[in-house]
Amino acid sequence: MAKKKKNEWLEWMKALLVALGIAFIVRMFLFAPIIVDGPSMLPTLHDRDQMIVNKFSYNFKDPERFDIVVFHADAQKDFIKRVVGLPGEHVAVVDNVLHINGEPVEEEFLPENKQSATFQSVKNDFTLEELPGNHEVIPEGYVLVLGDNRGNSTDSRMIGLIDMDQIVGKASLIYWPFDRIQFVGE
């Protein structure tokens, strides 16, 4: 009887170790949780939204315009922002309208009334040349990111272009709070 209990205990330990190993692999290489910190992505993402970051999608393809990405801002902090400019492009915002290579681009995720006092509280207009790095076009291997809440976002306008090696992954799912469960950026 004691041998049977010992074998059963060993089987449970093996199952637990396998489960922990799988969880470790998933967490390190495939998906990771993140908590949105602050209002920079309003109205799309809210402060304290809990999300899943897809860490492997950019192993097979590059970020696309308007993907919401998580990237290492520094050694201790990750930011979540939206990709607006891609390699080889010139980006400018003129009168709160995004321009890519001189052509206006619709940003359907922004508030409908971009002329509101809240949206206008900070001057949002810029050209790529005015950003840190003074680039004429976005170099290969870099993207330009902006928060949806342009008046309250630390993004490429302050920190410069983001090296694709800094990108952790694509934010893909809000899972908490329950009333906000949804896929984002699809």
From TrEMBL:
Cited CDD domains: S26_SPase_I (cd06530)
MF GO annotations: signal peptidase activity
Cited Pfam families: Peptidase_S26
Major subcellular site: membrane
InterPro entries: LexA/Signal_pep-like_sf (IPR036286), Pept_S26A_signal_pept_1 (IPR000223), Pept_S26A_signal_pept_1_CS (IPR019758), Pept_S26A_signal_pept_1_Lys-AS (IPR019757), Peptidase_S26 (IPR019533)
Source lineage: Bacteria, Bacillati, Bacillota, Bacilli, Bacillales
Peptidase S26 domain: residues covered: 9-176
Similarity field: Belongs to the peptidase S26 family.
Membrane protein topology class: Single-pass type II membrane protein
NCBIfam families listed in its UniProt record: sigpep_I_bact (TIGR02227)
Annotated Gene3D superfamilies: Umud Fragment, subunit A (2.10.109.10)
EC number: 3.4.21.89
Keywords from the named record: Hydrolase, Membrane, Protease, Transmembrane, Transmembrane helix
Catalysed reaction, written as an equation: Cleavage of hydrophobic, N-terminal signal or leader sequences from secreted and periplasmic proteins
Bilayer-crossing regions: 12-36
Organism: Oceanobacillus luteolus
Domain of life assignment: Bacteria
Protein name: Signal peptidase I
Keyword presence, Hydrolase: yes
